[in-house]
Amino acid sequence: MSAHALGDVPADVLRSTQPVVLRGLVAHWPMVQAARRSDAEFCDYLRGFGAAKRLLVWRGSADIGGRFFYNDDLSGFNFERQRSTLEVVLGELLAGSPDALYVGSTEIDAAFPALRRHNDLPVLAGFDPIVSLWLGNRIRVAPHFDLPDNIACVVAGRRRFTLFPPEQVGNLYIGPLDLTPAGQPISLVDQAHPDLDRFPRYAEALRHAQVFELEPGDALFLPSQWWHGVESLDAVSGLVNFWWRQSPPYMDTPFNALMMALLTLRDLPPAQRDAWRALFDHYVFDANAETAAHIPPAARGLLNPISDHGARQVRALLLSRLNR
């Protein structure tokens, strides 16, 4: 799908539950124009917004093949986290460093506020998005999901996105939940070289995969919780993404509920798990206007719609229970 106009995202895209490619959406951005001329001009453009800025950099040796991942026994990772300046990182990228270099999710409003003023999507202003810059060379990021909706804008180098719908989680062989490279659980399958003898169900995931290759200026709308692996295909690559949630700010991440469920539900006897499944279906997944209609509104408590004040009360109650 093409954008209706440069920088314009159709309203139906923002409500989509399927990925949407927006060709040329940000082709007018100055940083994209610079990247289209040359890698050197792209790097010079970024330097103008704070060459001395210190950034968190992931660095891996040449033998990881650009794949930021775990070590052999999944007790740690195959890369190091370091601090460096934007000037140094850009210099290494232009010099063709043999190391795998990755500057992940640097919030532009905090680190480079002037950069966004010249490279923005005003159509998203009402969503108050988190806007992040990503830089690197030829790197591979394992399939993972993000809670917010996302518009990922390729600003330098080509990128290949491999997307899987949320229901394919069982075929992606997800790694540890409590030790992750960047906070989100990742697939243990090397998407560039899948070992189907070790991970046979991944073949089914591939049947449902969507693969898109984007050029500088192109963008991709990624709905919440779609699994996505990303490959940077050129020696200098850059991406800007816009994250926002359709739910109110006071709603907590459902991932906390998943961790509590692992703690409290998973190891119950089967009959008890079935009973709790029925309760969750009744109060959460199948909840509707009839769920609490028999209770006077003033007496419904948690069964009323949650507000900011109500969310604070729930958190306080949970903390008091967890700290017993």
TrEMBL record:
Q: Report the residue ranges that make up the JmjC domain in this protein.
A: 101-259
Alphabetized InterPro entries for the sequence? Cupin_8 (IPR041667), JmjC_dom (IPR003347)
One Pfam annotation, family name?
Cupin_8
Q: What is this protein called?
A: Cupin-like domain-containing protein
Q: Which organism is it from?
A: Pelomonas lactea
